[in-house]
Amino acid sequence: MTYIAKPKLHHPSLPRNKIGFTRRDYEGTISTLCAGCGHDSISAAIVQACFELSIEPHRVAKLSGIGCSSKTPTYFLGGSHGFNTVHGRMPSVLTGAYLANRDLIYLGVSGDGDSASIGLGQFAHIMRRGVNMTYIVMNNGVYGLTKGQFSATADKGSKAKKGTVNVDSGIDLASMAILMGASFVARSFSGDKGQLVPLIKAAISHPGPAILDVISPCVAFNNHKGSTRSYDYVREHNATLNRLDVIAGAEPMTADYAPGTSVTIEQPNGERLELHKVAEDYETSSKAAALAYIQAREEAGMVTTGLLYYDPARRDLHGRLNTVSSPLNRLDETALCPGPVALGTINDSLR
Ligand SMILES: Cc1ncc(C[n+]2csc(CCOP(=O)(O)OP(=O)(O)O)c2C)c(N)n1
Ligand code: SF4
Ligand SMILES: [Mg+2]
């Protein structure tokens, strides 16, 4: 894999977090992705979120599959554990690592091809098993690394760069994760750091399967007119369900509008922001409400972003399997290999 190391030196006055680390301590090597790729903005948001959470980098295990998106763990958290798996198989490797060592913070990074095409089965099963992790899909609707073929999340009717129209139904990974049992489900946009960073922080802090479906335009193959994953399209069709943060350094902007409606406001920098206020009766903890809401907005041609579903009840794979609380690498030989008598008892119980 190609990579360019970043110089370690940084200005002594850079802000430090609670454990004395600067933002630079959470970076990786210099990105080799195309300039303007949405994935780089998501990497920057992960760096920011981990810095703000004061996470010790050596406590993080970042795992990915194959794709431009799956290359990104090289570009953040250079001091963390990393594992680049086979295409679409990150979830099973992450599950195995989690079973071996529950003390680490697991970050699964994947693409829409990696998770919704070749890896759809793996994606579904990790969501239902109660693995404590943050799973980030960098969703551009195409296989960027292999030159822009439609992936399984591409919307029906979306146009490829050379004009082909996608006739297959697109898979909505957020809806699927809700159905499969993820307990924290959110969607965001790589171009909306103000929404994305707090969602990543909340997902990492959530003690259960958390997924973030992040729309992340591919500037090389899917950023043209007719695409439903281009920067322009997503900005124009972003139905923001909720926003968990403020933009610092600007005059406060207010918008008074009714629950369940949208409003477009002009920002000081000239950009237009479309807000959609969550309906008064929207229930984040109801699967049925979340699915119906997402579907209704989709039928209206909008992409719902924000925290879509949240279940505070803890459901942990280790608890269900009744595994030992200590990481396996901290057990001694007697604990790991209790001898023929213990093995005989186990075998007898299975007869
Ligand atoms: C088993 C296997 N099949 C196919 C490929 C070829 N391949 C590499 S990346 C990729 C798709 C990546 O798409 P996505 O996960 O959306 O990542 P992106 O590049 O768009 O970020 C494919 C089909 C492969 N590497 N391994
Ligand atoms: S091909 Fe697309 S997904 Fe890959 S780095 Fe370039 S812009 Fe990003
Ligand atoms: Mg992709």
UniProtKB/TrEMBL annotation:
Keywords: Oxidoreductase. Residues 66-214 form the Thiamine pyrophosphate enzyme TPP-binding domain. It comes from the Bacteria. It holds the Pfam family TPP_enzyme_C. This is 2-oxoacid:ferredoxin oxidoreductase subunit beta. The lineage of its organism: Bacteria, Pseudomonadati, Pseudomonadota, Alphaproteobacteria, Hyphomicrobiales.
